[in-house]
Specification:
It contains five helices and five strands. It is an alpha/beta fold and about 120 residues long. The chain has a five-stranded parallel sheet with strand order 2-1-3-4-5, with helices on both faces. The radius of gyration is 13 Å and the shape is globular.
């Protein structure tokens, strides 16, 4: 059974890019969200195994959404995908429970490496 993925980004282009890149894995794109509020609602509804999450979004930012998701299910695997390249923000995301942090603009190779690493960790 394929792992369920939730893709969260306020940019439709980024949601499309991530959908395309993740299509190369045995994953089910179970949903996409354009802001943190929608992400939390969908996280509760579809119970994804993996989330790709932007930080800078309207309504609720990615760090707040991450914290909510981890409260709901600590085992959730969340990969932050963000243009913010501030070390303190990266550390905050990792401290809040993010599995990995990928910088935008993303490459297919970076997404592939991140997914493979998360899947390997989850298999342990």
């Amino acid at each position: 059974m394929a792992l369920k993925v939730l893709i969260v980004d306020d940019s439709q282009i980024m949601r499309d890019v991530m959908t395309k890149f993740l299509g190369n894995f045995d994953l089910e794109i179970a949903g996409t969200a354009r802001d943190g509020e929608e992400a939390i609602r969908l996280f509760r509804e579809i119970e994804p195994d993996l989330v790709t999450l932007d930080i800078t979004m309207p309504k609720i930012d990615g760090l707040a959404a991450l914290k909510e998701m981890k409260k709901m299910r600590a085992s959730a695997q969340v990969i932050i995908v963000s243009a913010i390249n501030d070390k303190s923000v990266v550390l905050k995301a990792l401290d809040a429970g993010a599995a990995l942090f990928i910088n935008k603009p993303v490459s297919e190779a970076a997404v592939r490496a991140a997914i493979e690493k998360v899947l390997a960790q989850a298999a342990r």
